[in-house]
Amino acid sequence: MNAPTRVAAATSVRALALDDPRLAAFVSAHPDATPFHRPGWLAAVERGCGQKAHYLAADAGGVIIGVLPLTETRSPLFGSALVSSGFAVDGGILASDAEAIAALAGGAWDLARTLGIDSVELRGGAAPDGWQVNEGVYAGFARDLPADEASILAAVPRKQRAEVRRALTFDLDVRIGSGEADRADHYRVYAESVRNLGTPVFPRALFDAVLDAFGTDADILTISRKGAPLASVLSLYHNGTVYPYWGGGVFEARQRRANDLMYFALMRHAAERGMRRFDFGRSKTGTGAYAFKKNWGFDPAPLSYASRTAEGAAGREINPLSPRYRLQTAIWRKLPLWAANRLGPPIARGLG
Q1: Among 202, 228, 259, 270, fewest CB within 10 Å belongs to which?
Q2: In contact, 307 and 352? CB cutoff 8 Å
C-alpha cells in the first residue's frame, strides 16, 4: 500500500497587529533578527515620528515562516517610501525559505501600491529576485566581544589602545541609565553632534519612544566632565549583541578623548551584561566614521540594500553625503544650535 502524498501548505501573506505575540516570538527565535525587526521598534518609530507601521507575516499551514516590518514613510521634502525598517540600518525580510521571501516581497509591493507609494526599500535581509540591489556604499562593522576588561582592551589595536588609555587619564565620569537626566543629556549631545555634521536631528520623542519600548534592552551611556556631558550613546541589546546606535560628542569630546572612553566603557558594560557581540553599525565607505571603526579593529563587511520603484518614478535620495545636498549640509553646519534643534525634527521625521 502506497503512503499518502504529503502536500506542502501554500504560503500566504497578511498584515498582523504589532502586539500579536507570534511576531515577537518569531523575531526572538530567529538567529538573523536584529532589534529593528522587533515590533517594538516599529511602534516606537510610529509614536516618535508619526510614520505609520505595517507588519507583514508569511504563513504556511498556520505557522509563521517569515516576517517583514515596514514603515510608511512620507515627507514633503524627500517623497514617500515603504521602508524596512524605518529609521534603521537593518530590518529587511526575515524568512526561512525562498517562497516566503518572494511572498513577503510581493506583499510589500502590493501594500505600497495600495497606499499610493512608488517605492519599497529593504535594508538588509534577503534580496528578492528582480529587485535593484545597491552595494558598495555602506559597510557594517561587528565582531565578537571579549568577556572581561583586560581582554577587551587587548583586542583593540595598539594605536587605538593608546587613545583609550589616554582617555582613562582624564577626569571623566561614566554614567549609564535611561532616566530623564540621561535622556536630556544624550539629546543635547547628539543634537549638537549631528548639527556639526550638517544633518537635522531626529525628534527627541523618537529616542524616548525607543527607550520606553525596549525597556531594559536599551540604555544610555554618557561621558561627562565636571557635570557637563561630552559624549553620549543610546544602545540597544538584542540576542547577545549590543548595538550602539545613536551616539555623538560635543566639540570638547575630541580633545578629552571622550568618544574613545565612551565606546570602551560600553564594551565593558555590555560584556558585564552578558553580551557576546559588538555591532558598531554601518558607515559610508571612505568617511571618518568608517576609518574610526577600522581603527578599533573592526573589519568592514559590505552591506547590500534592495529596492523596487514603480516604472517612471524616481527613488528617494536621503543620504546626507550625496552631492545634491552639499550646499544644504554646509549651511546647516553654520546654524545656531537652537535654530537647528527647532528646524531639524520636522525635517528629520520624514527621512525614515
Answers
A1: 228
A2: no
What one-letter code names the amino acid at 73? T
Length of the chain: 352
CA distance 199 to 179: 26
The number of helices, as runs of H, and strands, as runs of E, in the chain is: 12, 13
- Which residue in 52, 35, 18, 27 sits closest to 242, CA to CA? 35
* Tens digit of each residue's pLDDT (9 = 90 or more) over 69-116: 999 999 888 889 999 999 999 999 999 889 999 999 999 999 999 999
User: Cell 541589546 belongs to which residue?
Assistant: 237
Question: Could you read off the pLDDT of 237-286 as tens digits, one per residue?
Answer: 999 999 999 999 999 998 899 999 999 999 999 999 999 999 999 888 88
The label of the residue with cell 505609520 reads 52
Question: Where residue 80 sits, what CATH number does that domain have?
Answer: 3.40.630.30
User: And the C-alpha cell for 166?
Assistant: 589616554
The domain total for the chain is 2
Phi and psi at residue 170, to the nearest 5°:
-80, 160
Q: Per the domain annotation, does 299 fall within a domain?
A: no
Q: What are phi and psi of 53, to 5 degrees?
A: -95, 145
| Residue 321: per-residue pLDDT | 63
My answer on whether 258 and 160 are in the same domain is yes
Judgement on whether residues 60 and 123 belong to the same structural domain of the protein: yes
Cα–Cα distances (Å) from 301 to 57, 135, 281, in that order, read: 28, 11, 11
Distance CA 100, CA 121 (A): 18
Considering the entire predicted model, what is its pTM?
0.92
